[in-house]
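Quick look at the format.
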Amino acid sequence: MRVFVIVATVGRADLLQRTVNQLAKQTRQPDGIVISASTSADVGELEQNSELPLEIIFAEKGLPRQRNAGLRHIAGRADIVVFFDDDFVPAHNYLEALEEVFTLRPNLVGATGKLLADGIKSSGISFDQGAAMVDAHQPADIIQERSLPALYGCNLCVRMSAAENIWFDETLPLYGWQEDVDFSFQLGRNGILIYTNLLTGVHLGMKGGRTSGKRLGYSQIANPVYLLHKKTIPPKLAWRLMSRNFIANLARSFYPEPHVDRFGRLQGNAVAFYDLCAGRLHPQRILQL
């Protein structure tokens, strides 16, 4: 199989350099690595320092746009593509296990792996900590898998033959909150989506380069509502996301975590609810906030 990696990135050139260098440790090397950036500053000196099969492309800023640019760039050249966040550190056998899993299961169209740790739920994990976790990781003795309605985007694996005419929705701007659910839910109509512990890694959850608290808070309401109308998100998941995030932002705005702009998110939630009542709720409205 021809296995490609796509990494969309903005504003984290130093981190990107370390993340890409980590891919050199894969027991099965990728057939290509596509870095989709918005400006040359996003990649720094990456091309000059890498000995990997690296290709750098540029697209308009926004995670869906940058990931779509990567898909267009590898059209006809890849059998499997894995989208890694620029702050995801895969286990050294990730691509080897990926190829094996997809080869043995022709009806498998998408997969996401087990996170040894997820810094998005905390103040973040340093690259050195993440790399140490990966170095110490041993492949699982007991396989754990389950079917999923949609996949987590920090390590999203796709069978390209099942993804024809499926694109990340560019209506979801900037960070594109829940673009992974929208894309993979459509992909799942063509086969099976799974979580598997054969694929593992660490999501560092770095905070730099992400959208503002107010904008994210607006997206926490606007994006699930938009996807509900589009019918590309499980309704239970949409309502759970909106209610859970609103309640957390409301409750923790009085005693917020140091790394989370809870009041900003709550403001964004409030603006979104107002826009919903006014009939003008839309994901693109965050560009005006």
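Next, a different chain entirely:
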Amino acid sequence: MAVDPTGSDLKEFLAADPEEPVVMLNLLRFAEGGRESYQRYAAALQETFLPRYGAKVLYAGDGGPALVAEEGQAWDAVVLVRYPSRSAFSRMVADPEYQEVTRWRTAALREAVLQPTSRWVDG
């Protein structure tokens, strides 16, 4: 199952306007005992890396039973993070210090969706 973006994923992500603000949707399915490891990662993210790159958690919460979804599509947690630009996200994931703590995220997750979203234009 997918957990981390690949180099080609990031290249495609940056092919859109690299200075466009982005809200990243994170859907998380924890490995057994992974919630604690993810919380360690999330603390480092909020204390160090999000401020460093001008990003902010907009929402983080536990997933409940899905009201509308195919079997197996419920998620353990949902996180929305706003980045000032796609390039800010890319610089963060390339940061050597970030790469040291992202191992906690990788170990914590059985499966993840990391989907960039863009604001709809009015009219």
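The chain has one domain: 7-66+74-117.

See the schema section for token definitions.
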